[in-house]
Design brief:
The complex is a heterodimer of chains A (about 250) and B (about 250). With about 250 residues, chain A is an alpha+beta fold. Chain A is built from four helices and ten strands, in the order ββββαβαββαβββα. In chain A, the strands form two sheets. In chain A, strands 1-2-3-5-4 form a five-stranded mixed sheet. In chain A, strands 6, 7, 8, 9 and 10 form a five-stranded antiparallel sheet that branches. In chain A, helix 1 packs across helix 2 and helix 2 runs parallel beside helix 4. The N and C termini of chain A lie far apart (about 55 Å). Chain B is of the alpha+beta class. Chain B has three domains: about 55 residues, OB fold (Dihydrolipoamide Acetyltransferase, E2P) (Beta Barrel), CATH 2.40.50; about 80 residues, OB fold (Dihydrolipoamide Acetyltransferase, E2P), CATH 2.40.50.140; about 90 residues, K Homology domain, type 1 (Ribosomal Protein S8, Chain: A, domain 1, 2-Layer Sandwich). In chain B, helix 3 runs parallel beside helix 5 and helix 4 runs antiparallel to helix 5. The longest helix of chain B is centred in the last third of the chain and has 18 residues. The two termini of chain B are about 40 Å apart. The mean pLDDT of chain B is about 85. The chains are: A alpha+beta (about 250), B alpha+beta (about 250). Chains A and B meet through strand 3 and helix 4 of A and loops of B.
Chain lengths: ~250, ~250
Amino acid sequence: MMGKPEGLKLIDENGYRLDGRKKYELRKIKMEVGVLKSADGSAYVEWGKNKIMAAVYGPREIHPKHLQKPDRAILRVRYNMAPFSVEERKKPGPDRRSVEISKVIRGALEPAVILELFPRTSIDIFIEVLQADAGTRVAGITAASLALADAGIPMKDLVAACAAGKIDGEIALDLNKEEDNYGEADVPVAIMPIKNDITLLQMDGYLTKEEFLEAVKLAIKGAKAVYQKQREALREKYLKIVEEVGE
Amino acid sequence: MKKIFVKNRDLVVPGTLLAQGPFKNGRGTFKEGNRLYSSVVGLVRVSNGTVSVVPLEGPYIPEVGDTVIGKIVDVKFSNWIVDIGAPYQAGLRVQDVIEGRVDVLKTDLRKIFDIGDIIYAKVKAFNEINQIDLITKGMPFNGGPLKGGQLVEITPSKVPRLIGKGGSMINMIKNLTGTRIIVGQNGWVWVSGRKEELEKLAIEAILKVNRESHTQGLTDRVREMLVKRLNELKEQGIIEEVPQLEEGEGQ
């Protein structure tokens, strides 16, 4: 939107984007579960150039006691960007943006976790962005949901997330950093696929009503592809061991 | 309409559709209409009309009568606070430790169990507001404290696998390594051996069971691993003899 270099084309005449993807193509996604030894559950996600680590601790008792909910567990999320995760060094610690993202991620994950099973406890989720390249909140949600499943916390469904946006006047899936910076809009969406529930929906930029609906539909499609990868990653942790012992 | 979409011992993840129709939902599952879904990562178990998922990870949920291993985290006026690896801390009252009447003013509770001590206890009560009460009265060696040795943590749902059919797995590890092992149902395992190397070996075997619990032929593989390591230790002169298993043991 701002300061777009003269003559920069996000989609070339053959329909290819800057990183060689088609309009409706996801970036390369790699997921691994159970990467941290001391956390109850953990996951590492590489989503294009995004590198994100998520850790889950709990359910555990919380102090001060007034934070406890007598009928259910509370979910606490901390989204944090490492100072070296972006080109210009980011000042460490929480800022306006990361506090807000922590809050929306909590909202995206809360409907999936069966919190009523553990009254008066807290489940703590830490999302660390080691390298950022646009779409860290959807990658963070994807990683956190994997880490929750890895911690053995009962869930109604995994939460999968993906973003769609508008670049050079066209709706495209999963924007990268240049597209996010110089594109017209970005729509991150998180879903719980079995019932098609949307748990996160945001929009940054300008879209018409028709464009918005198209972007949401596209992002849901992307999230469903991410969901399949999540399921594979969770099974892979155990299937790898089965393979190792040569059954 | 009764339909089941999975087999016994299938590996499932949260949100996997398991069955449709009048099935009972066991642990690790939830119902949505007449559909049954998995809520955890685990292995499916189907038994006469009940579908459940045995989790491969997860916190310890106490049940009355469980024998657990715990760690004293605090000593209060007439009770102890114990960590048993559950989402909630457990309490142990002095009358559940000592027979007869106790004058709490004249007894120093720290002389019985001090902070950091490892105890062997039974879950006496676990109520709706998630208070866990323990009891050590009537437990072997009065509940401890267990001196020396090491504590290993495994996933609570894998404890039956570590014990094996009729204790086959745990007895094999005990006999081959010559260690004393106490398994708590909360997944905490206390291991104590005469030699550090043997203790380490027993722990390695326990962690192997924990890691490979969902595979077949595990007992044989653990035995193989133990015998191989014991032979190595014999060559190094750390142990004199590799213990022999009796017929039918560890099968």
